Amino acid sequence: MVQLARHHDGHTLTRLDELAQREDVSANFLVQILNDLKRDGLIESKRGKAGGYLLARAPREISLFEITQAVESGLLRLNIAVEGESGSAVKAAWDQASQALTKELKSITLDTLGTQSPMFYI
To answer: What InterPro entries does this protein map onto (predicted)?
Structure first.
């Protein structure tokens, strides 16, 4: 997404192989992520020889929270049964951490990603 944001002008496509090379990941792995991002309306794609990918919206309108939800929707949820003496305390702590992380992820957009030094509190 950062690569697409760097080259965003609203109409220029970036090829899959270029993205994979710039980020040093396999094209097969990257296409799976791009499909998730496309499904959630964060990117658009065009097929064919002159095809590629571009952001569906301006970089300032796409937050890291949206990206996280698209590729790893369960990341911020605690998926365990709340049982035993410690269960509710663990769930409460995770909920608090999840809320703080969600707030931070929503505040970071693709256009500020390279210029902002996020602070994370644990």
So the answer is: TR_Rrf2-type_CS, Tscrpt_reg_Rrf2, WH-like_DNA-bd_sf, WH_DNA-bd_sf
